[in-house]
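Sync notes, pocket subgroup
Present: LS, DG
LS reminded everyone that the earlier model was apo-only. Rerun requested with 4'-deoxy-4'-aminopyridoxal-5'-phosphate included. Inputs:
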Amino acid sequence: MAAHDLSPDMTFSLAPPRGRVFDSIVDVVGGTPLVALPRMTAEDGLTARVLLKLEFFNPLGSVKDRIGAAMVLAAEREGIITPGRSVLVEPTSGNTGISLAFVAASRGYRLIVTMPEGASIERRKMLRLMDAQVELTPSRLGMAGAIARAREILDTTPDAWMPGQFDNPANPLVHEETTAEEIWQDTAGSVDIVVAGVGTGGTASGVAHALKRRKKGVEVFGVEPVESAVLNGDEPGPHGIQGIGPGFCPATLDVQALDGVIAVSEREAIAAARRCARMDGIPIGISSGAALHAATQLAKRPENAGKTIVSIAPSFAERYLSTPLFNGL
Ligand code: PMP
């Protein structure tokens, strides 16, 4: 526990860092807490320490806030885009749109997000609240339709630029420079294993690059849906674990940097997420449940006894109110 200048009879202490005012919402990204799961760990009789990195402590509630900020700020630094003039265009039905929207609003960019019609109403409304333009594409065309439409807009709009989360090197790099360093510092270097769901692969790859440089023997595992286990050699398929399992191997994923990719079913992911909410009071999203399921499996292996395992929790349960995570509740 950090020492604070509080009177000795105070029961609660304020979490650091205090004593500063942030210049804008973009400066609040990162610095998310690493939290233990005491009750689940006890019930499973684990000697390994499983820790969750709560990425929903980011300002717009997901791990994607890191790359939303990083991709835009990197492009500004390189002179590719200018506030007030450039138009950002990105095909995304997920958290990346929301993360780009707050950065675009805060820094003065127009943003156009293309997405298939099926995307949830909450997401569309959040985007519009932050003044992003939402272009819906036919749901029968899937993400390919949204990507094609984004390219069209890019070709016909002056000063348009696509952040391109699946290709942009600023994506893995921000995890290398921030996510990994936070894990390193918060565990005082005792981290042995990190588990992260693979969407763009930016989180898993960036964390692997930095931690393996820091400490020999650190292992990093990716997680993908059983229903679309492309990295394990299966065919892509429809699945319910939003944010991971894009069905192809993205440029932002460095498979060589990983020690394995664990396939988890939607059912297992949801069961782990619900158990985490019920037992340790942490309502995580579905892909967080997938990573936690894989982390718990690793924690049960005899060779991992006594190790520190960090599982990335990309988002909060509330973003999945209309999904099977809440079935029967
Ligand atoms: N889970 C959720 C909910 C996400 O939004 C993402 C990002 N697409 C991921 C997991 C995977 O992160 P990454 O793209 O860094 O692989």
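DG: DSSP finds nine helices and ten strands in the chain.
LS: Residues 4 and 18 are 10 Å apart (CA to CA).
Action: DG to write up.
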